[in-house]
Amino acid sequence: MNSIKSFSDHAQCGRCEPPRPSCARTLLEQSSPLVHGGGITFVFRYGSPESSGPLGRVPRSLPLALAVCSRLEVHLVGGFSDDRQLSQKLTHQLLSEFDRQEDDIHLVTLCVTELNDREENENHFPIIYGIAVNIKTAEIYRASFQDRGPEEQLRAARTLAGGPMISIYDAETEQLRIGPYSWTPFPHVDFWLQQDDKQILENLSTSPLAEPPHFVEHIRSTLMFLKKYPSPTNTLFPGNKALLYKKNEDGLWEKISSPGS
């Protein structure tokens, strides 16, 4: 089955980082025959009520798609009935933003907050943590991903260090373009590495009770990476050039040389 993962760093549809249970996964689908007969336009994640606006995090090419397409269909999946009501706030912001748009946008799927919630021992958990899309049929289905793509630790470190959502996939060249990134040394990294699992879970997660089993291990690994590379520009990106990957004949990501290398 041909399916598309989101190639945005942060996007949980492709599970590029530890799942954030309170976040919303949003899929925009073209239904206009003018653009390759219709199909999947974007999959992205919106995960902070304090961000600059839900649609401000959609890939840059959205305005062009809206200009060409006669209709965009929205599929909104994710979040749950968390104690802090982050999911509810995110959902409200997303729906309000889409409602304000002058374009022909239609809500087709809504599986969020209490509609994506299950209760176990009086604690709430999401039913669906991740989604995938069949790019031939536009079928959306529940999914989890063992392979999170190239340079997972590097990308996770940028996220934990406060990096904003970015797109790393170039559809024209069919390449992943990672970096170059820069970040300041992570504050009190040694302190956090000394903490037990409970402290990390309670302080570095928005929904401690709903995190998957590998969350703490992933955070520890990312903190170790940040400690090892407090300033990554020169050490991880020689010549301040991006790391490029392209799929080989077997469908596996393979590192390729940067232009001018």
TrEMBL record:
It comes from the Eukaryota. One of its GO terms (molecular function) is protein-N-terminal asparagine amidohydrolase activity. Pfam families: N_Asn_amidohyd. InterPro entries: NTAN1. PANTHER family: N-TERMINAL ASPARAGINE AMIDOHYDROLASE, PROTEIN N-TERMINAL ASPARAGINE AMIDOHYDROLASE. This is N-terminal asparagine amidase. It comes from Macaca mulatta.
